[in-house]
Design goal:
About 10% of the residues lie in helices and about 35% in strands. The chain contains two helices and 31 strands.
């Protein structure tokens, strides 16, 4: 996609979805620059991989060779995360960053307005009845950031106060268009603790009644996951024209009220955006080694002591093509390459003999099956290579998110005819229905 095509698409998106109220007059150009930077980083990553292909056993430009072709890996290196309360890990005292112009939000307390556009969903309860949806909705002559909550499986919603940031949707094709003072995703771990993130990072400990800006994290928050008293974030930083120098770092904090600090033991990744999965106290990150260009993985099973894992079979096709359950991790590589599953959290990988084109998202169900988004379809893939097409409420142009809160209940955000729809399943992905947030 050229810069001109991207600009036309962004302008059409803002016009179509009525995203006219941005936090500053030059915000659209900032978003353009962010998109061009992210795309250039991916191109640079591919170019770096191609240049290294002649000397590396696993070429960074393809990343699809089976595990048998990996170089032999020595015993894992034991690494330790410094305590967030230790002097080495505690950043200097910070104050809330002033917001020059606060983008408008839909007031809390009432039902979501008609025309609510869902962009991100997060659920916490074991039965899948309680979840939050971040999006935007018409207000006055423009559009406002909106956050809605349901406790009855989506039959009714109530507006929750959203942080004062413009909401910017992920663009299909993995062009994240984050800019300053913007958010793209939301995560709640319980009725009180939640985070909204993108170009900015916000946190709440009172269910969204109030939000605090996190200033200890210096960069775009690309991914965020929460479990067992810890919140984890992939943060990307860099500047200048050489996008091969852009790096991503894993940050963590305890909640509520914990201070954020980089996980020094995990080191940095770059230039390709790494993928993060978290379950309970297990954390696994797969990314590109900034020096060699090879896939590199680190992980922990106790939320503290990180281990350098054996080299994974590939980089995820996109960060959303890496997914975890209580018993397994699923990984999708580039188009027409096999899926992989690991039942020991990245120590070993088994190829799944199901070749699918252009997988854009993977949602692990259990060690035996996962739901994948490919093109406009959702398919159920079993470890034996069997593939079944899910029953969906209509056709989709693509999916920006697919995920499960337990082995039965899952969500998908589909793009259909230029609009976004929230889909939900209660039978492990076999059947999906539309969830209407704004009536």
């Amino acid at each position: 996609m050229s810069d001109d095509d991207l600009e036309r698409r962004l302008r059409a998106l803002f016009d179509r979805e009525r995203l006219s109220l941005l936090p500053r007059p030059d915000a659209l150009e900032i978003i353009h620059r962010g998109a061009r930077r992210r795309q250039a980083r991916r191109v640079a990553a591919a170019s770096t991989g191609a240049a290294l292909a002649a000397v590396l056993v696993v070429a960074a430009s393809t990343m699809i060779r089976p595990a048998a072709h990996r170089p032999t890996t020595t015993a894992p290196t034991q690494l330790t995360v410094p305590s967030a309360s230790s002097p080495a890990a505690s950043p200097s005292s910070t104050t809330a960053e002033p917001i020059s112009t606060q983008p408008p939000t839909i007031p809390a307390g009432g039902p979501p307005p008609r025309g609510f556009v869902p962009l991100s969903v997060t659920g916490t309860t074991s039965n899948g009845q309680t979840f939050w949806v971040l999006g935007h909705a018409p207000c006055g002559a423009g559009s406002c950031t909106a956050l809605a909550k349901t406790t009855d499986g989506g039959r009714s919603f109530t507006e929750v106060a959203a942080p004062p940031s413009a909401v910017v949707p992920d663009v299909i094709g993995a062009l994240d268009v984050f800019g300053p003072q913007t958010i793209a995703d939301v995560r709640f771990v319980d009725a009180h603790n939640g985070w909204a993130y993108g170009g900015a990072l916000w946190q709440t400990s009172d269910g969204g009644h109030s939000w605090q800006r996190v200033t200890e994290v210096p960069g775009n928050v690309e991914q965020l996951a929460v479990a067992s008293g810890h919140v984890w974030a992939v943060v990307t930083t860099g500047s200048g024209p050489d996008y091969r120098l852009y790096t991503s770092t894993l940050y963590t904090a305890t909640y509520p009220g914990g201070r954020w600090a980089p996980v020094e033991a995990a080191d940095t990744f770059g230039p390709a955006e790494p993928a993060l999965v978290v379950h309970d106290t297990t954390v696994v990150v797969i990314g590109q080694d900034a020096t060699t260009g090879r896939p590199r993985a680190v992980g922990t099973t106790n939320a503290r002591n990180f281990t350098t894992l054996p080299a994974p079979p590939c980089l995820p096709a996109h960060p959303s093509t890496f997914s975890v359950t209580a018993d397994a991790v699923w990984l999708a590589c580039a188009a027409n390459a096999p899926l992989y599953v690991s039942t020991d959290f990245g120590q070993t990988w088994t190829a799944v003999p199901a070749h699918l084109p252009a997988v854009s998202a993977v949602a692990a169900v259990d060690p035996t099956q996962a739901v994948v988004a490919t093109g406009g379809e959702l398919r159920i893939v079993h470890v034996d290579g069997t593939v079944a097409t899910a029953v969906t409420p209509g056709t989709a142009d693509g999916f920006v998110f697919v995920g499960f809160v337990n082995a039965q209940v899952g969500f998908a955000v589909a793009e259909t005819g230029g609009a976004r729809q929230l889909w939900r399943t209660t039978d492990a992905g076999q059947h999906w229905s539309v969830v209407s947030v704004g009536g």
